[in-house]
Amino acid sequence: MDKLGTLIDQLDIEFERDTVVFIGDYIDRGPRSFEVVEYLINFKKRYQNTIFLKGNHEDMLEQYLSGVDRFAFLANGGQQTLDSYLDQDRTPKTFPIPDSHLDFFKSLVLFFETDQYIFVHAGLKKKIPLDLQNTHDLLWIRSEFIHSDYDFGKQVVFGHTPFQEPLVLPNKIGIDTGAVYGKKLTCIKLPEIEFYQV
Question: What is the pLDDT of residues 79-92, one digit of tens each?
């Protein structure tokens, strides 16, 4: 949470003109998932031109809450997320995830497209139109996408797979630099390809 707030404070965002895109995995990445989601909800209230993508960790939460797969979420940081919600002193004591946060999770989108870029959490499969991409690939794909030199028509900006430094290739830009492992949290300003890190 501290890194997120510090990084946002570094940015010179022109909120009347700029669009801010968050790339997913807001939970399961430390002991303060509740605070991260609360921060993002409040950020959106102030700056409407904000897009939140769904990450694979939000997908695992969805599977957990629906009863489809309870193990994957708990095995991948989910218990920390639940603990962060249970630690909140809310009255009355009800289901630990408040409705405003459930609404946030339901509102997440799988991709966002502009004239020049496609933003997605994990990546894309080649030769498949964007609107026909498989949800699992959008949230989970790794090496098949990372090692592909396929021209997706636009540069793809993605997270999910951590790199020591941002990955910049003609067809893709990877901005996950391993914040969950104590490394840097990275943001990119486009079209300048200017990186901000904490």
Answer: 999 999 988 866 55
Range 2-197 classified under CATH 3.60.21.10: yes
Is the CB of residue 47 less than 8 Å from the CB of residue 113? no
Read off the pTM: 0.93
- Cβ atoms of 181 and 196 closer than 8 Å: no
Residues in the chain: 198
At CA 160, angle to CA 62 and CA 178, rounded to 5?
A: 120
Q: How far apart are CA 124 and CA 142, in angstroms?
A: 9
CA–CA separation, 185 and 198 (whole Å): 5
Positions of E strands within 89-165:
111-113, 117-120, 155-158
